[in-house]
Amino acid sequence: MLETFKKHVTKNLIGRIVLSAIIIGAVFFFSGKSILMFLKGPVPITAGMDYDAAEGTFVSFDAQYIIDEYVRQTERNTDTKKEKLKNISYFVYYKEDGYFFGIEVPSSQEEEMNQYIDDTISWLNEEVSELTNVKSVKGTWTALTGKRLQYYQEQITDDLGAEFLDMALPYYIDTNNVGERTYVSIYICLAVIALAIIFLIYSLVQYFTGSSQKKLKKYLEANPTVTMENLEADFASATAVSGNIWVGRRWTFRIAGIYADLLENKNLVWGYYYYRSGRHSESALRLYDINQHEHSLNASEKQATAALNIYKQQQPHMVIGYQKDLEQLYRKDFQGFLNLRYNRPAEELQTALDEPWNYTNPEE
Length: 364
Fold this sequence. Notes:
Layout: H1 2-31, H2 34-40, E1 43-44, E2 58-63, E3 65-76, E4 83-94, E5 99-106, H3 110-124, E6 135-143, H4 146-159, E7 168-174, E8 177-178, E9 181-182, H5 183-208, H6 214-222, H7 228-236, E10 239-240, E11 245-247, E12 251-256, E13 259-264, E14 268-276, E15 282-289, E16 294-298, H8 301-314, E17 319-320, H9 324-332, H10 334-340, H11 346-351
Parallel strand pairs: 1-2, 5-7, 14-17
Antiparallel strand pairs: 2-6, 3-4, 4-5, 6-7, 8-9, 10-11, 11-12, 12-13, 14-15, 15-16
Helix pairs in contact: 1-5, 9-10
């Protein structure tokens, strides 16, 4: 029995490893290089660097001389149809290399950016000799094209003169993105990867520490009159209705994920096949015990029906099949439900006619 359980648990563990690998691989495929850029950190913009070769990379810059804004980006609310300011782009001067380029920041930083512009104007008017405050930004080094490039060049010409266009790099730092992905999507991807890794590590620890059998051990500790030999004997004569469910005379054994578990058949009062399609689809053998606990075992209709046939033959105290009236009785009058079969004398159950109940519940 334990070897069989270990074999199936190992198979499920391998499935979890493969699933985790697929999830992590899919996340990296979706994010492209963005996650790697984020984890590595931004590359500082330095004097003399190859600005063209840096296109698309994750960069950082301490902006000291912020001259003016050159474009505003709005977005339309699809429900209200109202326009809302989203981002504002500014052109800055990189004194160490003698170039201008753009930075785009969220509109929520407008007041802060206006103060930097005022400081820069004071520097241009020689009211101050040096600026000490800096605006640290990081984002994707992106080429200016189309209207963005046009507005950028027009604003530099209006503010400083056309002769300064030779010093204007056709690039800007998009602070809303890392590579091709937004920060929000990066954080979501990292969270998914972290959860997949935690799930995998947890599964491996549970497997290699023997925790997959802890429910069996816990049951034996709680029932000192039952031995492992008793479980082994019942399992040996049990019927395997699926790769993870075995129905014996005294116990129903199952593998759930990487755990081996069992149910005492004598405590089961109701069983039927449950099916639901759609987004939250489910196909399961549902069992209910004397403590009104529900146990949902993943099974196809064929597998569940096979198990229910065994219960019908070997566990006469169980109600087998589903009707809406049965569910209402179970919920509202549990003792009345037990009186249907569980509380009836054994001799009555032997001669009682089969109740006309369906094996499955209507699809929800």
